[in-house]
Write a structure and sequence with these properties.
The complex is a heterodimer. Chain A is mainly beta. Chain A contains no helices and 11 strands. Chain A has strands at residues 5-7, 10-13, 19-24, 31-37, 43-50, 53-57, 65-68, 75-79, 88-95, 105-106, 110-114. In chain A, strands 2, 4, 5, 6, 9, 10 and 11 form a 7-stranded mixed β-sheet that branches. Chain A has a 4-stranded antiparallel β-sheet with strand order 1-3-8-7, with no helix packed on it. Chain B is mainly beta. Helix content of chain B is 0%, strand content 54%. Classes of the chains: A mainly beta, B mainly beta. At the A-B interface, strand 4, strand 5, strand 9 and strand 10 of A face strand 4, strand 5, strand 9 and strand 10 of B.
Chain lengths: 115, 112
């Protein structure tokens, strides 16, 4: 069954460093998402991306965050200057369409620990 | 605010018993998704409901969306240890963005 894959599975980084989390969405999907889950908290929406543009972003997704689709298969989340509170599990997701009724598939997640 | 409440927060059942998890919204839902998560792992898609009164089943798991589209329930029949995990409901409250708002999750333990 097709799946969303994410790398790295775990990353530890120093505060202030830049981090890039990578995702390979399901191959025929057109809509891509990043979510995060701080330990013990709810899964939170960060951003949605379609046609090489951000469709929607949450208030969490401030200027330190950026997303990119550098080629036909990868979708990345960059955190420019990491803070301790960025420590979380980051999930990439994709769907064929963006409107209601389309299944959204999630990856296994990337654990980010900022020290 | 856009809130989704799940109940119960946690559940311990004996293997073979049935159980129900509820997900309630104060707003009409355009779509309701159920996922299962094992601690520290990804979200596994279970089912998606869109129409009021809709019911879907997969193996021993049944999910329903009420007529008003503000509450969903997930029912597991004859639970097994493999059902253990965290069940998350996620709601599409806008209808056109694919953005999901999640509940806080229900942790299920199944005792052999």
């Amino acid at each position: 069954e097709p799946e969303v894959t994410q790398t790295p599975s775990h990353q530890v980084t120093q505060m202030g460093q830049e981090v890039i989390l990578r995702c390979v969405p399901i191959s025929n999907h057109l809509y891509f998402y990043w979510y995060r889950q701080i330990l013990g908290q709810k899964v939170e929406f960060l951003v949605s991306f379609y046609n090489n543009e951000i469709s929607e972003k949450s208030e969490i997704f401030d200027d330190q965050f950026s997303v990119e689709r550098p080629d036909g298969s990868n979708f990345t989340l960059k955190i420019r200057s990491t803070k301790l509170e960025d420590s979380a599990m980051y999930f990439c997701a994709s769907s064929l369409q963006g409107h209601s009724g389309n299944t959204i598939y999630f990856g296994e997640g990337s654990w980010l620990t900022v020290v | 605010s856009q809130e989704l409440e799940q109940s119960p927060q946690s559940l311990i059942v004996q293997e073979g018993k049935n159980l129900t998890i509820n997900c309630t919204s104060s707003k009409t839902l355009y779509g309701l998704y159920w996922y299962k998560q094992k601690y520290g792992e990804g979200l596994i898609f279970l089912m998606m409901l869109q129409k009021g009164g809709e019911e879907k089943s997969h193996e021993k798991i049944t999910a329903k969306l009420d007529e008003k589209k503000q509450q969903s329930s997930l029912h597991i029949t004859a639970s097994q240890p493999s059902h253990a995990g965290i069940y998350l409901c996620g709601a599409d409250m806008a209808g056109n963005t694919g953005k999901l708002i999640f509940g806080q999750g229900t942790t299920l333990q199944v005792k052999p």
